[in-house]
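Subject: Protein record for review, amino acid sequence with backbone structure tokens
Category: Structural biology, sequence-to-fold work with a learned token vocabulary.
Format: Residues in single-letter code; tokens as whole numbers, each standing for a residue.
Body of memo: The sequence and its backbone structure tokens, given next.
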Amino acid sequence: MDALPHTDGAGFPGAVRRLVTGWALLGGALLLVVVAINMISVIGGVFGTPFPGDFELTEIGVAIAAFAFLPYCQATGANVTADIFTAGASTRWIAGFTLLGSLVALVFSVILIWRMYLGMMDQKDYDYTTAILQIPHWWAFLPILVSLALLALAALATLLEEFETVTKGTHRV
């Protein structure tokens, strides 16, 4: 399967692909900030002035970044696949499997949005915060919910593309 299926950039799928690419780049930038915080903490620890709350910021930053990459993986076909089973399959069969995968991703993303939203509300209602910096836990849920909404959009976009491939037998770009 191509690393970047349907890369013409047109219509709804193209717009979603551009949006999730930007979101993933923000996730990557956040990981760079986390690395910088850890470097400052290690260097500061050597000189007796560690970065307070570095573990908390690392935990929150990595969680947000990991979720930021999910929509990109869906939109670009970068999810883990077992190509050994489909090596001899036709484009139409592969599109059918990808369509099924997109449907599963869409269903799971909607379920995760629902459950993560309820989890965020619990964190907010009980006023949970991190131990050192006192950052409210629910703050981390906001970008994660955005990531899950983008995952749902990416799954819908790939579902529509693969449906067209299955029904019309068009070739992947």
Notes: The longest helix spans residues 11-46. DSSP finds four helices and no strands in the chain.
